């Protein structure tokens, strides 16, 4: 069946939920039409504000995201949620909870929730997440909340997509501020001290403050600390206000522009890389060449650098044939 | 100063610690000589047995690795340890503990310990880890223990380097077997129930057994469960025996051969990808082209797919010039 990409894009722009769902499925599956669709939609993107929300397991990310989304909905905004679990490379088991939780918003057309975990041989989760965000952006979602588990490089790559990054902490979870992953400290625009009714919240806030004081000066925005109890909806308004303040302040600052440029540099490299890899392993020759070379290297008959160069030469030839 | 790679390789083969250290530093820094060195050493590799050790923070990985290494040393084997922290993409803060711990083996020339955390724009931690393992292999280390935090895709990629993978669990750490990351379950060859003097160890072992029973049948080796108390050196001998048993049984089996082939396919693709990326951003034109394209995309003047294609065309041209 021929796909009318222009009509599909138009449905997405009008916010048609089924068209949006279908687009996300196409993006995830690397459907041949997804690129054309994304290219068509691209000029309509760039209006949404993307929030990255990360934190260790048990910090209450899902609940916080739910409450923040509800807050934006109440203010009349369209919201998209992307729940990403980079720790589930093989199966989607760990995000079952997210799927269940989504049912709480069932029937509200102003909120769209999607959870992602799969990751193929080609292309990463960060790419797919970024493309899903583009679809939601084109569909008129004004706030896109990207939620991910706060560990590892994948998560850092995913959070880099965001305009503003929230890092969740919980008093007494064993991860005191000193042990916090350096990567997370550096990407946080706002620290959310969730479950802040718990013992140790004051001490944790003091430690965070001290650490922020010691951290190298950042141009423009100074990271803030907001206390919340997401399960009781406490502090959510303050958090939304802090996000708004960040947005206002960073709208025109050089640091934010540099961040966006860096963001697109990474994404372009990743896209080029992916197109390149697809060329290498495309067709029978590519796949069987890779198999043969891997066998020779495993048997120490060829070194891996020479083998990699043969793969490059193969890609080059497939270019010349075009 | 001209570098005599052949002499350097010879020093490494003879186990010279300073030459090995220098090689690892060169590999990590992507020093121009590192590739030639690795190519020279490659035929001397493939003899070491690589053990991947992973588990959530707090499972006692470092202690277990220390004790297992001591066990191998006592049996007269040369040992290399690579401690990788993929959650520290920016600074090496989190692995300071590892660096301190290494001093316990100071003075033993039969053990070499290196900790890694940095990850550059080009190439990943998995590549660097694999290359460091090659250096240690060529230097005559018979067992190479690669220790990494058990979360995220990076860690799975790193553990994939190993011939045999140990996954550490601890009773009552909040991560019961049901919640265990699917990815980790599937890569484990041996489950190590560490801190097994704790309450809940029996229940956890029973749960693991049940889960292994439900898991899809694996050809050849059936994953085993070994109980240890690493801090008291308990169960370490049993663990080493299980590893040996795995090694014997899998030496000629088809599953292990397929695993090695898959391993090299991934590594070759990653190497080709890296060489390709280096071509894209090499020289002034590449870097400034990337900057310009990212700027146009951020301003929505060009879509990312068209921009990525321009990058590919640039790489293609840089090929033709060769």
Briefly, what is this?
The first copy, chain A, is α/β, with parallel strands linked by helices and 322 residues long. Helices cover 53% and strands 12% of the residues of chain A.
Descriptive keywords:
homodimer, 322 residues, alpha/beta, Rossmann fold, 13 helices, globular
Note down, in words, how this protein is organized.
Two copies of one chain form a homodimer. Chain A is an alpha/beta fold. Chain A folds into two domains: 45-252, P-loop containing nucleotide triphosphate hydrolases (Rossmann fold), CATH 3.40.50; 282-320. In chain A, 53% of the residues lie in helices and 12% in strands. The first copy, chain A, contains 13 helices and seven strands. Chain A has helices spanning 5-13, 17-28, 32-41, 61-74, 96-102, 125-138, 152-159, 182-187, 201-214, 236-250, 254-281, 283-298, 304-320; strands at 49-55, 79-84, 111-116, 143-149, 164-169, 190-193, 224-227. The first copy, chain A, has a seven-stranded parallel beta sheet, with helices on both faces. In chain A, helix 4 (61-74) crosses helix 10. The longest helix of chain A is centred in the C-terminal third of the chain and has 28 residues, at 254-281. Residues 89-99 of chain A have low confidence and may be disordered. The interface between A and B is large, with 69 and 69 residues.
């Amino acid at each position: 069946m021929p796909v009318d990409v222009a009509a599909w894009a138009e449905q997405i722009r009008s916010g048609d939920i089924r068209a949006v769902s279908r687009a996300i499925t196409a993006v995830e599956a690397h459907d041949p039409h997804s690129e054309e669709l994304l290219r068509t939609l691209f000029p309509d993107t760039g209006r949404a504000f993307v929030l990255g929300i990360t934190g260790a397991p048990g910090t209450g990310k899902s609940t916080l995201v739910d409450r923040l989304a509800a807050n934006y909905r109440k203010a009349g905004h369209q919201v998209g949620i992307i729940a990403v679990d980079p720790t589930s490379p093989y199966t989607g088991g760990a995000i079952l909870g997210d799927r269940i939780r989504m049912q709480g918003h069932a029937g509200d057309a102003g909120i769209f929730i999607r959870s992602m975990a799969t990751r193929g041989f080609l292309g990463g989760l960060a790419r797919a997440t970024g493309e899903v965000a583009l679809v939601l952006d084109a569909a008129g979602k004004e706030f896109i909340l990207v939620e991910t588990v706060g560990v590892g490089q994948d998560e850092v790559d995913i959070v880099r997509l965001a305009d503003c990054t929230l890092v969740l902490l919980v008093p007494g979870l064993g991860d005191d501020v000193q042990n916090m992953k350096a990567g997370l400290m550096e990407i946080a625009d706002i620290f959310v001290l969730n479950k802040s009714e718990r013992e140790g919240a004051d001490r944790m806030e003091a430690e965070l403050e001290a650490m922020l004081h010691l951290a190298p000066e950042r141009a423009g925005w100074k990271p803030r600390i907001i206390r919340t109890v997401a399960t009781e909806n406490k502090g959510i308004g303050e958090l939304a206000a802090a996000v708004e303040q960040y947005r206002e302040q960073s709208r025109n600052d050089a640091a934010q522009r540099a961040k966006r440029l860096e963001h697109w540099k990474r994404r372009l490299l990743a896209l080029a890389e992916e197109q390149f890899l697809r060329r290498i392993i495309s067709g029978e020759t590519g796949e069987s060449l890779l198999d043969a070379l891997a066998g020779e290297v495993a048997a120490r008959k060829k070194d891996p650098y020479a083998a990699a160069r043969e793969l490059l030469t193969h890609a080059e030839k497939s270019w010349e044939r075009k």
